[in-house]
Amino acid sequence: MSLRRRTARTPQLLLAAALSGVLLAPPAAALTTHRPSPGGGVPLRVATYNIHAGAGPDGVFDLDRQVAELRSLDADVIGLQEVDRHWGARSAWRDLAGELARRLRMHVSFAPIYSLDPAEPGGPRAEFGVAVLSRHRIVKAENHEITRLSTQDPNPVPAPAPGFGEVVVRVRGLPVHVYVTHLDYRPDPAVRVSQVADTRRIMAEDRGPKILLGDFNAEPAAAELAPLWKELTDADPGAPTFPAQAPVKRIDFVAVSKGGPGNGGPHGGGGGPRGAVTVRRAWVPESTASDHRPVVADLLVRTRGR
């Protein structure tokens, strides 16, 4: 069972959208210009970044440092993990999702994993979760439940909980489904096995181009991730992402719908039917603004069948 679907379609819905977790950027950032490729697709740059609640490997909260890093990626869509929203002193009680969106002039959808009562009556709820930043208009957003082992319960058991975010963005009129996730961090893969099954079930309900962004807390060859690669292509950047100062493993991912022939990853061709997403290139920028490094991928999203 998922939380209610949230939609922001017109300026009149700005307040309602903001209250539900979808914020709209200023009009100047609402549109980007892409030229279709000769093969009939549209370029789209995406990224995933675990922002560690605004802190770097030094443990210092410095959102200016992360704003500069995110701006340098020049991505159209960014999936964020470990995002605080009035969560606590570690992030100065700030709304990181809303602040990053305003400073980068992007739309935002925030999907809380935890939403706790405010510290003081009448204050904002203390929330922690994932978010999507987008230069393109967000036309729909939903916070899905997947299996989780709560960090807020002293005796947790695996149970459905929110925090698997989904948005639909329009890229030259084409609806593109973007999902952002943060899988369980524990060495025992049992919860991640369930989370992968939940992820596949949720994504199977949608049609068209799909992009999954996230911190999977497992490396590409991990057995629990293997089912994902039946429907998705891993945009392999060829470099590790964690820990940021001297990375030794890749646990952060951009994955895209295969959609048919011609979507063979970084070296794949540009063919394929509507819904195919081709990975043109992917890379890991050097960065110590967080305890993870981001992954960036240049994609080609199909706009018509071939």
Automatic annotation (TrEMBL):
Source domain of life: Bacteria
| Molecular function, one GO term | endonuclease activity
Against Gene3D superfamilies, the record matches this protein to: Endonuclease/exonuclease/phosphatase
Record keywords, A-Z: Endonuclease, Hydrolase, Nuclease, Signal
* Endonuclease/exonuclease/phosphatase domain ranges (all copies): 47-292
Database matches in SUPFAM superfamilies: DNase I-like
Identify the Pfam families for this entry.
Answer: Exo_endo_phos (PF03372)
Question: So which residues are the signal peptide here?
Answer: 1-30
Name of the protein this chain belongs to:
Endonuclease/exonuclease/phosphatase family protein
